[in-house]
Every structure is written in structure tokens, then in C-alpha cells.
Amino acid sequence: MHLPTPRALIKNVLPASLVSALSAQFGERFSTAQAVREHHGRDESSYDPLPPDGVIFVRSTEEVVAAVKLCRAHAVPIIPYGSGTSLEGHVLAVQGGITIDLSQMNQMVALHAEDLTATVQAGLTRKQLNLAIKDSGLFFPIDPGADASLGGMAATRASGTNAVRYGTMRENTLALTVVTADGSVIKTGTRAKKSSAGYDLTRLFVGSEGTLGIITEVTVKLYPRPEATSAAVCSFPSIADAVNCVIQIIQIGIPVARVELLDAHGVKAINAYDKLSLPETTLLLFEFHGSEHGVREQAELAQAIATEHRAVGFEWATRPEERTELWAARHNAYFAILQLRPGCKGISTDCCVPISRLADCILETKADCEANAIIHSIIGHVGDGNFHVLMLIDPSDPVDVAKAEAVNARMVARAIAMDGTCTGEHGVGLHKIDFLVQEHGEAAIAMMRTLKHALDPENLMNPGKILVW
Amino acid sequence: MHLPTPRALIKNVLPASLVSALSAQFGERFSTAQAVREHHGRDESSYDPLPPDGVIFVRSTEEVVAAVKLCRAHAVPIIPYGSGTSLEGHVLAVQGGITIDLSQMNQMVALHAEDLTATVQAGLTRKQLNLAIKDSGLFFPIDPGADASLGGMAATRASGTNAVRYGTMRENTLALTVVTADGSVIKTGTRAKKSSAGYDLTRLFVGSEGTLGIITEVTVKLYPRPEATSAAVCSFPSIADAVNCVIQIIQIGIPVARVELLDAHGVKAINAYDKLSLPETTLLLFEFHGSEHGVREQAELAQAIATEHRAVGFEWATRPEERTELWAARHNAYFAILQLRPGCKGISTDCCVPISRLADCILETKADCEANAIIHSIIGHVGDGNFHVLMLIDPSDPVDVAKAEAVNARMVARAIAMDGTCTGEHGVGLHKIDFLVQEHGEAAIAMMRTLKHALDPENLMNPGKILVW
Prior knowledge:
Two copies of one chain form a homodimer.
Chain A: H1 16-26, E1 30-31, H2 34-40, E2 54-57, H3 61-73, E3 78-81, E4 98-101, E5 108-112, E6 117-121, H4 126-132, E7 138-139, H5 150-155, H6 163-166, H7 169-172, E8 173-180, E9 185-187, H8 201-205, E10 213-221, E11 223-224, E12 228-236, H9 239-251, E13 258-262, H10 264-274, E14 282-290, H11 292-308, E15 312-317, H12 320-331, H13 333-338, E16 345-352, H14 358-371, E17 376-381, E18 386-393, H15 398-417, H16 433-440, H17 442-455
Helix pairs in contact in A: 1-3, 9-11, 9-14, 14-15, 16-17
């Protein structure tokens, strides 16, 4: 797919003095090999790769400092890279430069089970974290689907299925260690659960997509594993019924841990992919966390509300392996849906609206896909008013691409008109820069630009993302 | 009490051209009367008043814009004022200037009950908000004790008794309307529950204490009023027992809505003030929210844990009037404690630590008060690891003041050494500027200063607070 912002595309040649300095400092952990560069020039968006000019595999905050100082001395852009699972072109080297790969920084720094906190290196993934704490009785709930790194999740303000109950990276990040554009190291917070001590640097970096500095450590909240968990699925005759069911569940305050919507296309796809036999109509997947009795109470209430909204086929999955199968199917949905049009690429987009507007926003967006004959699926973290549209396109066909981009633009305009946001959890990256202006207005964008200019005056930190310089 | 930062104290004379321009614009709503200025030069801290040179009672965002532009044109400082209930000297006019009183901006802008959000003018107080929404089945949980304005609560990142369950202003503010230093109006967010759309301007202004701009509207989350509520008190032989009980309740994940500690001095004070007969030893006050069965389950579990920690005299208050009496006593504690030393002034300070360190932090701080013969009380939002020390001093006695300040400094150093924060909810104001440096380190403070310089290059927005320019 072609970049919508070619104005950001600048071709660089890496200065020989920088190459030799990086080689001297990092040895074989600095690479300019074609394969390594190409691997780091792509994410899970449908953009064509834009490789950096070199990649450093760092092992410590001090090494990130050294890398930043060397790149800065040569005015070369710096792009942080965690697991490459971002969805809006966040890691593409639109202005060339050096990618700092943090995946080898994957150690637990400190687990404080008694305080329900963990401090980890930024390259540790969420699954690695949950594995590392599995004997503590605690878990880390944020689950964006991909096994993303904690640093990347903080940088994109990620969330996912559990956010309706546990919040997003915004609410669950207590502190960050950040290497700034001038190579200083700051700690943005403490392990105190709350603080009124000055400007909220933690939240400034959460969601900053590497454009203000490089996150090297993350302190997150953990939660006691619930005494009881149950999951359920049920089917609805229409999307409106399913969404209205969710709206009512949220409005009366049932503390549902997950509530996910799959449209009929999505259900059909996971049936084929995961060899399931779910009714091929709108599906809701629920998960409830709490005490034995509390979970039963929540679930009964949810089922009663679902039934009022014409749900059928309520099925319970209380055994862990049944639940795992169900959630694996949900997590595979992206890949399953891609099979609906062999050889295609998926454009995945998301938005988030106040929950009372969710049914309208989904239905109008679906009608738009259908009017444009775009094979698609809508999947939603509907408890938060957040949904995804996966559109299957032929990336070599400009008409196909243009149609999908137009649907996306109209979805964003619709969400913004409903007092919602152009992205609930994917981030801005390259793809939503213009929408950001629509959403926030010129004065707020000017303030964001002022912040960027103040903290990265030479525009070296992941340039070309979030804002046009 | 004398200012600890006289370096910020600058004497101004209001330019005559500004006085006439403000009079022309605001008529009688611009005042330079001595009584009005003195009223606006004090908060609930123990500082001697520092009146502004004039006060404007604004009625709209547009009027704030006009006021900011006029003050800026004359290089005169601007101080926002909500209800004057801050605790660290936030509203004192250390460099003179004009106070913008927002208390007449106290209207509901939009209640979206179906989305669990309300947008209010910044001068609306939390009690006014709860009154305005009382027929909706919803409530706004954040309760810092004082009937503070929503704008002030956002500006100081306030929290209070319910934060352990519902979070602070950080988590509950969805969007702000802000008048910036150059008189622009920005909206920092939307009503979407989550967003990854660019830098988090909302969180940048939450906790910025008026130093980056003036908050004129606040969009907050609301919550369904719980089906059932119960409150309880019990007494412990020691502070350590009580705190250890709370630690265990939090660690196993009981979703307690409030858990407050009062030390023996505090209990004695409220017994006298509210004509109660509670045992004069460490007290915990609990509140539980949920379904009928859920509340009973939480409460029984909490009682069992309390009993393990030698609690006695568990008493339930399930009737609304009993609960109201109990929480009124808690909220009156500040005034009740002041009566322990007639004619004194109270220095109220707070800190917040990871919960595993809470007992140590409280006990060492209490021992320090006792070693210095300071009449005091410790009251805590202990579920968050947050506590307050109220020290009763003779403000005219420099020895008394110095002793209290030294206890405060050692408490903060202790909290920071425990990976906690110098203030959990009061904010920095004038009083914790030096501690902020201790907590964050020079590099992070340099970044905060960069932000302040970028967004308020002429240092006109509540100058002298949070940071030394």
C-alpha cells in the first residue's frame, strides 16, 4: 500500500563515522544487513516496508543512551522497536535512520507481588510477563491480542479485551524509565498508586509512540487472579440487538471482564479457521471475574439482559480449556478473517465512541463497507465503545485501496461527530495523522506540536509519526 | 506561617490601563476591593494570605479568554480560583496578579447518563454535581473531603476516600476545555472511554495546578449508584494491626469502596466534636458497594481478615443515615482535630507509598511527631497507601513551625525512599517544590520545566507553583 503521507519520506545515507562508532560500541549487535533492516521496516499494518538504515539490538538503558547520543551527534533519526506488532505503520523508517530493537531487554526488573506491581524491561512481552509472575497469584490483564512488548504497549496506549474491567495502559502504567532525545534518563513516576506530584510525565509518554523519547522500563499494576472466572457466548439476530445488550450491561454496572462482539463474517471466519460450529450471526463473547457467587450473579444478570435482546444459544465455558479455546478463536480472528479473501491484505482500523452511539456507528460503518462491496469484518471491544473494521483489499489495486481508505475516513468522521476518537487503541502512527487534526482541532494540535518541538527539537525521535513536523 | 519559597515573591502594581480595561470588560465582576482580594489570597493551608491585585468573577470560557488576553498584554500573572480549598498554597498570589474566580461557572453543560459522563463548568463543585445528577441513578465518586470545584479537583489531581475503588481525577477525567497562556481554547479529549489519539493533553493538565492554562470545563466519568452499600467500623490495638489488615484486603482483591484509618488522636477528636463514643484507639472505616449479596460477601471477608488482625467492635451501618453520620464524622475530622489544641493552626501534609511499606511509613512518621512533641493526627486513605498528617502548631512560634516542617521533610524523604511520592493528592503548590526535585530527580524536573517554558513562555500562569522558573 502506498503511504498517505509521502511528504514525510526522506532518503538518508548513514554517515560512515556513525556506522563505525555503532560497530565499535555494539559489535555484532549493530546490523545493516538487508534482511534485518527489512524485518524492522514493517509492522502488522498493510504498508509496504520502509526499512531503517541499520538496527541495534540493545541490552540496557545505558546502551540506549549511547545509541541515542551517537545518532543525535550525526543527526540521524531513531526508531524504537519492540515486537513489531503495531498496526498503523509506527515502526516504519519514513525518514531512514537507526532502529533500536529492545526485544533483548526482556527481563523482569522487580516483582513486588505484595504491592501488586512489576517493573520490567521494555522488551518483555505481555505473555512473558504473565509467565514470569504465574506463581505469584497475580496477573497482568491488558491483552491487545498480539504478544506485544510492554514498552510498545505503553508507547501506543494499548488496551484490548480486558480494558472494560481493568483499564488500558494509561491506567495501568505507574512509571516509566525513558531515554530522552538528548540522551538523559528520566524516571517518570514512583510505585505509589496515586500521586499529585507535578506534571504527569508518565501519561505524556504513554501513547507518545516513540516520538518524545524511548521507553526502556515499565512499571505496571498487577491484579490478584480472580477466585472464579467464567466465559459465555451467545448469538443475536442483529448487531443492533447485541450492541444494545452490551450498552445495558455497562449502564447498570455489571463489572464484566471482557465483552467482545464478532459480526457474522467474523464468526464464519473463525468457524472455518478453528473448526467451530457457532451460529453464523452476530456473536458476543463474555468473561466474568470475581468470587464464585459473584461470577454466577454477574453471568445470570447478563444472560437475562441478553435474552431481553433476543439472544439465543447462551453457552457457558467454565472449564479453563473451554475458555482458552474460545479466546484463542477470538484472538485468531484477524488471521481467520484474512482467509475470507485469499491473497488479500487486511486494512485494520479502529475507533471508539460514547457507548450510546456504538450501535449507530457500527451499523453505518458496516453499511458503508457493504455499499462499497468491501469484504470486511467488524470486531469490537464493545464494552468500551471501541470497535475494529478489518477490510480485505488487493494492495496492488489502487481502486480497492482508495475505497477502503474512504470507508476508513468516513468511519473516523462519524466517530468524531459522535464525540468519539479516531483511534481507541491502535494509535496514530502514519495512518491517522490527518484524522488527529480533525479530532483535536488546530489549537490542540499546535500544542502537541509545541510539546514535540520542546522535547525533541531536532525531530530525531521516530519522526513523521503522530504529527507532521 | 512564613513562605518557604520567598524567592518567588515579587511585588507588582497593577497597570492602570489593565484596571480600566478589566473594568470596561467585566464591570462589577472585576474587583480590587481589599476584602475580595484577601479572600482570594488564602486557601486551607496554614500560609499567611497573599492577596492578588484584583479578582475577576468570570461566567464563560470566552470571558476567561478575554481576561487572559488582557492580563497577558500587560504581563500580569493569572491565578485560577475554584473554591479555595487547596492545601498547599496553590491560590496564593506570590507574584501578585489577577485571580480568575470560576465559582460562577457552575453549570452542568451536558449530562449523558446513558454514557455515564457529565460535562460541567469548572466552578461546579462535586456536591453540586451529585445534586444535579441525583435523579439519574448515577453518582460521581471522587470525594476529597472539601466541597471542591471540579476544575480545582482536576488541576490538583484530587482523589480522596473513594479512590481505592474508583480512581482519582487522573482516571476519571475524560476531557477538559482549557484556555492556554496565549488565550487559545483547546479541548483535550472526547467522551470516548479510551483513546490512543496523540499526546495525552488531558493528563498533562490534570495535576498542572493552573500553571499551564486555565481549565474551564471538565468531562468526568459517572458510575451507576450501587445496588447495595454498607459501612462498618472496627478498632485495632495498634496502627500496625490496622494497616496490615488493609494490606491483606487489598492484596486478595476485595473491591472495597472506601477504607479509612484514623489514629487514636483522630478518634478522640471526632468523639468530642461529633458526640460519638468510639473506642479511642486506631479505627478503620469501611464502605462496600455492590449487589446485596456481593456487599455481604465483601464485608464478611473483610471482617474475617480484620479479626485475624485483632480487630474488635466490628459495627455495621447499613442504614443510609447511620452511614452518613459516620462519614460526616470522618469528613469533619480535620476540624475536630484542630480543637485538640485551641488557637493552633494545622499543617496538613500527605504522602503515598507502595502499600507494603505503609505501616512502616506511618509508624516512623508518628514516632517522629511524638519525639518532637507535636500534637498531631494521622488519617489515611490507606487502601491506596496514602495518608495525611495533621500537625497542630502555633504559627507565631518559629520553633513550632520549624519542628513541623522538619517532620514533614523527613516524612517525604521516607516516602520517596520507599518508592513513594511526596504527595498523593494534595499537590505541590508552594510547599512541596523542593520535594518534587527529590522525588523526580534533576533530569525529570528539567523536562517539567521545559514543558512549562514551552506552554507558558512568559511565566504568567499561576507562577511560582510546582516549579521554580
